[in-house]
Amino acid sequence: MKKERLHNLTIREKCKMSGIEKSIQEMRNHNRVEVSEVIRVINRQTGAELGQLVNISEEGFMLLGSQSVPEDNILQLSLEFESGNNTAPILIGVECLWCHSSSDQTQYWAGFYIIDISDEDLERVRHLTG
């Protein structure tokens, strides 16, 4: 495989190619930061709430929700703030990298890679991550 092709692989493809199991954490360029406020994650195409944001970085985030999200799914999402200060939502395009049920099988953890975000919203994510 040519060097430039390796550069363009998704995180999922890099994990699959690796003979050594690397965690997604090892593949990240930015550490994720837990959010201290309630931020709902909404599917902009259907209006359905996928869950609540657990942590976020410039590259991606994790949510906890009541429904499974198909891996490799591309979604247009809105991160909506519950704080009463009329904060505009952050609009992003993402790929779902993984989804696992909770230990009690009642909720789902899902990890997303941000593939599309405006410069303004990226600055807002940077502000969230401190």
Structure description:
With about 130 residues, this protein is an alpha+beta fold. Helices cover about 20% and strands about 40% of the residues. It has one domain (about 30-130): Thrombin, subunit H. It is built from 4 helices and 7 strands; from the N terminus they run H-H-H-E-E-E-E-E-E-E-H. The longest helix has 10 residues, at about 120-130. Mean pLDDT is about 80; it is low at about 1-30.
Summary?
The chain is an alpha+beta fold and about 130 residues long.
How much beta, percentage-wise?
35-45%
User: Which series of helices and strands comes N to C?
Assistant: HHHEEEEEEEH
Integer average pLDDT: 81
**CATH H-level superfamily title:** predicted glycosyltransferase like domains
Strand order of the largest sheet: 2-3-4-7-6-5
Biggest sheet, open or closed, and with what strands and sense? 6 strands, antiparallel, barrel
How do the strands and helices of this protein lay out in sequence?
Elements: H1 3-7, H2 11-17, H3 24-27, E1 33-34, E2 39-43, E3 49-56, E4 60-65, E5 74-81, E6 90-101, E7 108-117, H4 119-128
Antiparallel strand pairs: 1-3, 2-3, 2-5, 3-4, 4-7, 5-6, 6-7
Search tags:
Thrombin, subunit H; 4 helices; single chain
